Amino acid sequence: MEACTLCQKQPADKTGSHLIPSFLLKMVENYDGSNKRDRGLGFRLTAEDTEVHFERAVSGEKITEVMGELPEEELRNYPSPSIRDYVYCSNCEKFFGKLESAYAPTLSKDGKDNYPSTDDPLTATLFWLSIFWRASAAGTYGFSLGENEQEQLRSILVYYTESDAGSDQPEGLQTLRYKIIRSVGFAKQLTGFISFDPAETEPYCAVIGEYAAFLYFDQVKTAQIPDDFFGFEKVVADAKVNSSTTGEQILAVPDDVFLAANNKLALKMSELKTNYFSGLIIGTAKIYFGFNGKLPADTIKGIAIKIPDSDQPSGKKYSKKEVMELIASELSVYFESLKIESK
Ligand SMILES: [Zn+2]
Fold first, then answer.
1. 56 Cα to the center of ligand 1, angstroms
2. What does pTM read for this prediction?
3. From CA 81, how far away is CA 263, in angstroms rounded?
């Protein structure tokens, strides 16, 4: 058995470990199989490019519009990217569980502008660090911290898994800063999504349901406006800077900030899907027809548009084989027309 990725000592014997704490995951997924129709259902994108960065998002109206409907049965069969087997040992798993139960009550806190969520800054900091570390170490969200940064977080977390951790904070903890933005209750009415910013630059950003989190290794950067991240970069300057020694404050923002982020995600998905289909069309031309030339952009576009409209049963709408067959039949029409023209 592999060693636990956190302590790197004990065997990683735990199954069903959460990369995203279950109380946050509930905001975006029906991972436990419960039917939360009012919240929408999570779906996994089949376009290969999109799987990396947005493993699971939730079908807001806009997203459904872009991606088309997928039946519930189909959705249930996709394994959650947020749950892993054999990555942590029992001790480390217990430690994550302790952090989560200590932080979970902050969910019921509320307020205007920057509101205090907890008076336990150490637990709050470790909680958010653990999320960034877990995502980076697992690599499941197409996200990674720098190698040294990942190790810095790991050694801080390991320090606190040891029961004799005293009141002195370990090296590398006090210099870390983070900001949290939240639209309280957003995930209850509308669906959220999980995404980590794949750009490997500070601040490291994550959006999970109704929360957006920003992590800084360099305090100086807390004053800078980060790069484009679903529009959250526009409000992040107003969020209070948190550390392991100052009580956590969360910036409450209106729903429309998260709604705009949802729409941006849908657009991004649509873009990625278009790129994916273009690749598939060019590939199909090569494999089915031995065509190595350049397909006109209009032809590619014309075929790509037809893919979501195919009258295949919706569950199979996006299976690679069926999509390629559909493309092949469209391409044969195109190649036929070329022959006629050349005569
Ligand atoms: Zn361990």
1. 27
2. 0.77
3. 22
